[in-house]
Amino acid sequence: MLGGRARSSGALAEAEPQHERRRDTPKDSYHLVGISFFILGLGTLLPWNFFITAIPYFQGRLAGANSTAGTPGTNHTGPTDAFNFNNWVTLLSQLPLLLFTFLNSFLYQRVPETVRILGSLLMVLLLFALTAALVKVDMSPGPFFSVTMASIWFINSFGAVLQGSLFGLVGTMPSTYSTLFLSGQGLAGIFAALAMLLSMASGVDAQTSALAYFITPCVGILLSILCYLSLPHLEFAHFYLAKKPLQAQAHELETKAELLQADEKIGIPNSPQKAALPLTLDPEGEPEEPPEPGKPSVFMILQKIWLLALCLVLVFTVTLSVFPAITAMVTSSTSPGKWSQFFNPVCCFLLFNIMDWLGRSLTSYFLWPHEDSRLLPLLVCLRCLFVPLFMLCHVPEKSRLPTLFPQDAYFITFMLLFAISNGYLVSLTMCLAPSTPKPLDLPDLLGQDRDT
Q1: Cβ distance 330 to 411 under 8 Å?
Q2: How many contiguous H segments (helices) and E segments (strands) does the chain have?
Q3: According to CATH, what is the number of the domain 10-245+293-446?
Q4: What distance in Å separates the CA atoms of residue 401 and residue 308, rounded to the nearest whole number?
Q5: I want to staple 447 with a disulfide (CB 3.0 to 4.6 A). Which of 13, 266, 375, 388 is the partner?
Q6: Contact in structure between 431 and 367 (CB atoms under 8 Å)
Q7: Where are the chain's structural domains?
Q8: What's the pLDDT band for 64 if we cut at 50, 70, 90?
Q9: How many CB atoms lie within 10 A of CB 162?
Q10: What is the pLDDT of residues 9-55, one digit of tens each?
């Protein structure tokens, strides 16, 4: 969880005044921790954004052309429907993302955080290095399709574990660092779209352009690895990361609170002496060891945040169901020319990522609606309307649906609303979820002073 708002409570809060805690908190010298989390956010989504913006390159390879068929972003026509490439990309990106995000809820208790984060970063780096190497390898469309689909599955699988683990890590920091992490994720798409446009306009040969395009995210992943390894050596990050062992004390306090509530139900008065009750004696008169406090169940947490979690899943489901599988097929209704060539890279990928980043940044200024409001689920459900709206735009390859929105202005308007709502609602649910499971909130139990 990302954490909760600071609330001073209990004897621990009284024993440690708020001004002393703030005085003892180190400063983020030269904003190195903030920059590190920004680069980590950039590195988590940079590989996948480079992958999906290069869909025309993959379509060119599957059309039977060799690796010099074209640069990423160049539209190709050919018998790619035999592979149903866009449909498989959508399926093999959403399914592992859902499965491994859920699996990560159990892995965090059994697999060390360092293994999950570094292992995922190294595996994504290896897979993208393979993708870059295949630019120089001539393969027939069938084997190339199989390798590409396997890469999509594993990139999203390790990416889901990586994102979930990093969200848990950034949750130990003040809220500003969560915003920086999310902003880095939003900027990853902008960076990928600009790289695609630069690749198209560079004028170099197609093979060199594609190779440089796929090597770029590898550099980003290497920077992310260096940033993660540097965090324990930065005083500011070490101060907050060192609070993790207090989680065990939080579980113990939570268990004691539940025992006190149980005593009240059976008639034992709530008195100061209750905390000093003697230990239970066994038949031989020896005091029994107190039971070790158990860890909170994942299902107990899900019971408290299920609505926000469902909203988050629905936001991602709607977004990934049309972007880029459907939106990448929309073409300009104008006559062929420069605008037609750059229409999809600019109006689909670049515009989406800019507005998505803007939506994520808006939560730095306000959080609306609140988690208890019925308006939040309503806004999330209304995004389902974007699915038919994009399908009714100018998509020449569709055979049955009519084109009700042929002009480019319709598609641009839909994309603006689609992207900014995605970024804002994703960031909003991430920010609201930590304050929901209050009984499991570490700052509440220990009286620590920490921002959201």
Answers
A1: yes
A2: 18, 0
A3: 1.20.1250
A4: 34
A5: 13
A6: yes
A7: 10-245+293-446
A8: low
A9: 26
A10: 333 333 333 443 455 778 898 899 999 999 999 999 898 889 888 88
